[in-house]
Every structure is written in structure tokens, then in C-alpha cells.
Amino acid sequence: NPPPNRHTSDKNCEISSISHVTMSPSRQNNFVSSYLFPLAKSSYSVISAFCTEDNVLQCISYINQELASLGLCSTYIEATSPEGTGLNAVPALNAIYELLQIHRRTMSTVEALEKEQLKKSSTMELMQTSNTRLKDQLELSIREKSGLHEMERQLQLKIKTLQSCLKTEKDEVQKLQSIIASRASQYSHDAKRKEREAAKLKERLSQLLVDRKDKKLAIDVLNCLGRSDGKRGHWKTAKATASHEGEMYKSLLSDYEASQKSLMLENAELKKVLQQMKKEMIHILSPCSSSGRGATADDSQEQHHDSDGEEKMGDTSRETLDQSCEHAREQLTNSIRQQWRKLRNHVEKLDSQVSQVQNQLESNKEMIPLETHEDEMERMRCEVQQCKEFIHAQQQLLQQQLNTSFDDETAALLNDCYTLEEKERLKEEWKLFEEQKRNFERERKNFTEAAIRLGREKKAFEEDRASWLKNQFLNMTPFTDRRRCSSSDGHSALSVSNEPEIRMSSVKAQLAKSSTYTTFSTPRSSQSGAVPSTPELYRTLRLIPESRGRCSDLSIFSMGEDENSLS
Amino acid sequence: MNFSEVFKQSNQLCKVSPDGKYLATCVQYRLVVRDVSTLQIMHLYTCLDQISHMEWSSDSLFILCAMYKRGLVQVWSLEQPDWHCKIDEGSIGLVSSRWSPDGRHILNTTEFHLRITVWSLCTKAVSYIKYPKACQKGIDFSRDGSYMALAERRDCKDFVSIFVCDDWHLLRHFETETQDLAGLEWSPNGCVLAVWDSCLEYKVLLYSLDGRLLSTYSAYEWSLGVKSVSWSPSSQFLAIGSYDEKVRIINHITWKKIAQFEHPATVESTKTVYKEVERRPAVAHSSTPRVNVLTNFVSLINSLLLPHLDEICSLPVQIPVVKPDPDRANPKIGVSVLAFSSDNHYLATKNDNMASAVWVWNMQKMSLEAVLEQTSAVRCFQWDPRHPRLALCTGNTKLYLWSPGGCVAVQVPTEGGFQVHSLNWHCSDNSLILLGKEQLCLCYMETDEEDK
Questions:
Q1: What is the per-residue pLDDT across B409-433, written as a single tens digit (0 to 9) for each?
Q2: How far is CA A25 from CA A15, A30, A33, A39, A128, in A?
Q3: Which chain B residues touch A204 with a CB distance below 8 Å?
Q4: Chain B interface mutation, best of A219, A223, A224, A237, highest count of B Cβ atoms under 10 Å
Q5: Cβ atoms of residues B139 and B151 within 8 Å
């Protein structure tokens, strides 16, 4: 029997160890159990401690009370004697027996309870494990759910974007459809128009084929007109085609030249404006930097740059004459950028300084720097505004001026050049003209003189001839001798003498001289000396044919009118 | 502003001679030539049929009268009224007839555009040009009259031929990269030829005088494209109006777009919007002058008394839009009319689906200068050849004038109502020719009109 063993084991514990008997956690029965297991091996000593010979009666009463409280009212312990030294065995044994029964019962219940407890604890363990398992499962499923939620959300988003894409695509499709529709209507309209025209053409063709009475095309003009520019029409030649090509290229070239000129003007202007801007920016920067709060290193750098800039400016101003210089252009734009950057940095610096000063101001320090800052800023702003206005005004003026002055200058210059040339040419030509005039005058004078002389000679010759003829006639008569004397008076020129050769030669020589039209030998002497020979005279009288050789000799004498007058 | 009396005309054929001295009008089959200043009839010619087209020669000595139905062209001389010339195209028919720039050749386009016949009045010679293209503007003469550009179509391909007008020598002949060439126009300096495609494709090609392709411009694809094209008088800009209600300005140096003018229904940023407001004629002070006035000449005082029917609206302004029928071809949408002022400062445009408004753009600032909104669709507008002044008419009895200083509406004082259908400026005389359906009237401006 396990209970006695336990009892005996428990007997070894002291009464004070009644409370801490270890057992399985069953709280309800705790106090009972602690109460039920007080017995230790040294219980005798304990019991003896409880009950001594002195307090037997008290003990008995106490025990009876306890038994009563346990429900064993029928088995009271009785004392044998009123002194209380002995016990009535029967009730005591009954009481003990009852107590043992009670104990047994309680032990069995305890056993049962323990069994049940074990069972319950095992089920609880089971439950716990299943609980944890289920909890884990729950967590897992919750996580899964959230994951699924997330996926669902993403899918929803995707759906939305796809829907919007779809919408845009639909819109575009609609737009394209409308475009297609309009194009289709345009095409059909055009096609219909062409078809109608083709139908008309067919109709007309059939009409013509049937008609056959072809009305010829013709023009009926009263009279042909002259060309509008008054010139005559030209044949179509290769030269004409070439000239047309030339004309065309000329007009194209002149147009390109004009546009290039205007573009170059614009460029020059813009360059000037940029340079102005640069100058003014430098100007703005340099006084500011000298009085500014920038670090001296900065200043020196700026000064260096400025001087650099000045130098560059000088270069570029020289190089603006070389208009197509890429390098100059780049230099200019770079320097402008540089200056602008500096200006901007400076302004930013000033701004930051202003804000610093403002901060300082808030802590009630240095009112003055802010003011000066503000003033400076204002001044700068004004300057910049002025510069801008100035630039603008300059631009406009320059534009105007350049457009006119350029033309005027060069036009005047060119005109001058051209007129100079012309003047020179004119002068030369005048000179020539004067010379020629003089020459002509001279010649005219000579001519007139010669003519006068000739006239006189002619007259003299006529007279001579007349007298000679007279003489001849008279000589032909028997009165020649007499007449000779009289004829020799003055008109010895025509007297036939034997000195014709000599005379002739002299005449020839003189005639040779006088064959040049500018000089005439003295008429009288030649006439008086000239005694033409008979054949000459016969020739003059057209009695014998002239010979070519001698013709020239007598050409003076046989001038056109003379011949006529002779014949 | 003075108005002359009303004369008859037919077919809207009324033209001032290039030298500005004479006014020629057609009345049925008669050609009437008047002196511009006195409006006395100087000459009267009778043609063989109703005149379909009438044109002055460039030297103002001859007038061409074409009768398309009968295929006849008659030429009359002003100096010698007895001189006559008749050109009979025969059975081949006549579709259009025009002078050459030298005033001595006549170009007749036969029916079905089979060929162009060039008649010489100096030599009675005939030459033919084959395969001319039947399109919106297939032939153009350069401003100085030395070159003629002609669009041709052969084997389903477009070509351009450049002729020297002196002797009709073919200078250049080249193929163009267009699908269906719709028109060509010389720049005023005669060095560049702008060629544009039909509305199914937005394409503008720029060719140099010697036939080289300088540049191509295409703003967008697929939607309907170019509707109208115009050069600026200095040849600096090319304005292209398209079906998307925008005007794009191309510059002559890079041939790229430098500005885009839009015609939105709500106008927000412009200098001024002039809106024509109908005022009841029952207003006392305005009605009496009209009743009492002599129809021959209206004094300047009266024109001052006439109400200014335009008021300046505050922005933003809504402009009435008429949506075109999407199923029809050549829809009434897009910029169909472009006109530069003679001093190059302004561009006037009309958007077809806002037909009652004329937009004036400032070309120096490339921004909208003014919007003129009328009560009915604008029929015609034209810039004064000397001053920056725009005259427009809407088919009612009023004449509207806009200048940078302001806007003026003038009632044409005629009995029986003269509805102004179209108008033409005189080349130098500061006067306007107003054409009604069957009538015409001259309007003389006062020389200090611009100060208004």
C-alpha cells in the first residue's frame, strides 16, 4: 500500500514541514493535502509534543472537536478517567478506524485526482501544442493573406494602368479612324471628281468623233503688235539659252549676296552689342570688385581676368574687321559668358552678403553695412537697367545708322570712284579732241588756202588755156606768126615750145610735189613754167586716150569740173 | 470718305488697270472702260458672248476678255479702239485664259487641261505646253515677270517646269517630291519657288530658281494638311495655313518654323478684340443722316457721325465656332486665307470654322495683335497696298476698316441696299472698289484717314 509508505516517509518530516509537501499542482486540495500529510517518522515526538500526560483531556477535547469538524460525531474519544491519563480504546479505535477510512478515501480520491490531473495535464499539453501549432498556422495563413492582398493590390493597379492604356489606345484608334474617314471622304471626293471629268472627256471625245467638223483653232488679229519693250524678237539660239542660264544665275547670286550682306550687317551689329555689353559688364564688375567685400585673392583674380578681358576686347575689336573669323566669334562669346558668370557670381555674393547682413541685423548689429549693401544693390540694378536700355537704344540706332550710312558712304565713295575714272577718261578724250580739232583746223585752213590757190590757179589756167586755144586757132590759120608774138605777151605758159621735156620734168617734179594734197607749190610760177607737151594737151582735149601712167600728172589739171567744162 | 454712284457689273469682273488710270468692268457681254478719277466712260467694247474672265495687260494698253463657253478670247486695245484680236480655241474648249507678264502673249488652258496654248500677239505664232496640271494653283509668274513656273503631271508623277517668259524657253524641268501637287508660288524676290502638296499630305517644298531642292517642311502626318500658303512681301517669311487651325511661319534663312499662330475658340492674349455689335437703326442721331444724305457723295462729317459699330471687348472672348461636317470632303475648318500687309508688319488670317472672325497678327512681335469679330461670316478682306490698313466685308451693307490705330465701320450709302460681296484696293489712289452681286461702287478715302 503506497499510502503507508508515504506516511512513513512523511513521518520523517517535522511538523513545520507540513506546509511544503511537494505534489502536483492541484490548488484546491492543497490545504487539505497539506493538512492530510502531516505525519512524519518523528511524529511520535511530535504527537508526544502535542499530547503530554498533563493535557490529555485537552487533547481529547481538541481531537473530539476536530473529529466533529470532520463529521465523525459518533466516535468521540473518551477518557478513561477524568484525570485523563488513559483513553477509552473502543471509541479511540473507532475514531482511528474512521480516520483511516477517511484517509483511504481521501487517498483514493487523491489518486483519482492525480490521475485525472495527469490526464488533464497531458491533454493540456496536447492542447497547448495544438494551440501553438494552430497559432503558427494562423500566423502563416495571415501572412499568406497579406501577401495575397498585396498581390491583389498590385494586380488592381496593373488593371488600372492597362485600362488607361486601353483607353488611350482606343482614343488613338478613334482619332485614326476619324482621320481615315476624312481621308477616305477626300479620296472619294477626288475620285468622283476625276471620274466626272473623265466622263466629260469621253463625252467630248465621242462628240468630236461624231462631229468631225473640227473647228480649227485660229487667231484673227488686225495687225501684229510690237513687243512691249520695243525691241525686236530674237531667234532661239544656243547663245540665248546660255544667256538665259546666265541671267538666272545672276539673279540668284544677287539675291544670295543681298541676303549675305544683310546677315553680315546683323552679325556685325550683334557683335557690337555684345562687346558693348561686355564692356559694361566689366565696368560694372570692376568698381564693385575694388570696393567690394570679396577676398583679395578674388579681386586679384578678377582684375587679372578683367585685364585679360580688356586685352581680349582689344583683340576682338581688331578682329571684327575680319568678319568671318570663327576664332574671334568664339572668343567674344566666351568672354561674354565669362563676364556674365562673374557678374552673376558677384550678384549672388552680394545677395548672400545681404542675407547675412540681414541676419546680423536681426541680432541688432551693424545697420550700416546693410544700408550700403542695399544702396550698392540698388545702384547696380539701376546700372544694369541703364545698360540694358542703352544697349537697346544703341541697337536701334546702330541698325538705322548702319543701314543708311553704309549705303550712303559706299554709294558716295563708289560714285566718287566711278566719276573719277570717268573724269580722267573724259579729260583724255577732251585732250584728244582738242588736238584733233586743232589738226582739223589746220588742215581746214590749208585746204581753204589750197582751194583759194587752186581757184586762182584754175582761173589762171583757164585764161591760159583760153589764150592758148585762141593761139592754137590762130596758129592754125596763116596768121600764126603774127599771133605768136602777141601770144608771147603774157600767156607764155601755154605756148608750144621746144622745151617741153625740161619744162615737163620741172612740171613733173612740181607736180610730184603737189600730188600731196596738203601742199601746193606756188601756182603762178608752176603755171608759167609749165608748158605741157602736145600729147598732153591733146590728151586734155580728149583727142587721144589718156595713159594710166601720165594720168596722175595731169590729174591736177584734169579735175572733175575742168573735164566737164572742157567737154 | 466719299462714295461714288453705283454702276452695274456682272460676274464680279471689275479691275483697275495696272497704272491705276482706268477701271474696266464687264456688263454681260460688254466691256466698259472708265477713267478712275471721273468715272466717265472712255471706251465701250462689245464681245461675242458673255464674258467669263477679264484681265488687263501689264502695260495697261490691252484688255483680254475670255468667253469660256464659246472658247473665244477677244483682246481690245485702249489706244486704238479699232484694233481687234480674236482667238478661237476651236473645238478643244477653253477653261482659263491669262496674259503673260510682258503683255504680248496669251496663255489659254484648254478644256480638261489637255494643254496650254501660248499665243503671241507679236508674231501670231502658237506654242503648246503639254500636260499642265489641273490643281488649285498650277501656274505662277514671278513678280518681275521674267519666269513662269508651271506644274505638270505625267505618268502619275508631278513635275515643275520653269520657263523664261522672254522667249518661252524651257529653263528647268524637274520632278517634285509631292504625292499630288496642289499649288506653287514664287517668292517676291523671284529666287525661291514654294510648292505644296494636296491636303492629304502636309508637305511644303522649297526649290531654288535653278531647280535645286532647298528644303522640305512637314509639320505632321496623316491629318489633313496645307490649306493656304503665302509669302511675305520681303520674301523673309512663308506663312502656311493648315487644316489644324494653325498658321506656321517659316523663315527664309534656315527654312524652319519660327512661329506658330493658333486660333483657339477662347481668345486670351491679344491686344484688342473688336466685336461688331448690331445697333438698332432706330437711334435718332444716326438714322437721320442716312435718310437725308445724297446718294452720290457722303461728306466726311457724316462718316464721323455714323456709329462706330465696333466695340472693344474685354478678354477672354469666346469666338463662335461652327463645327464642320466630318463626312464631307474639303471640310470648312482650317486657315484658308492668309494676307500679309504691304509693309510686312501684319498678317491677317481667317479660320474657316470661325468664319466671322479675322485675326491680325503682328509679325514683328510674332503675337496676336487684334481679333475682329463680325456678326456674319467674313466674305473678303484685303490690305491696302500702301498703308497697313485692312478692309473687310461680310456681305452686308457695311465696309469695315482696321488699322493699328483702330477700327471703323462705314455704311455704304446707296439706295436699295448695296451688299458688299468683295472688295479691291486701288493700287495707288487710296480708294476701294466695292463689288456687290451685280453692282459696284467706289469708295475714296480721305488722305488723313490713317490718323483716325
A1: 888 887 777 888 999 999 887 889 9
A2: 21, 8, 11, 21, 17
A3: 93, 111-112
A4: A219
A5: yes
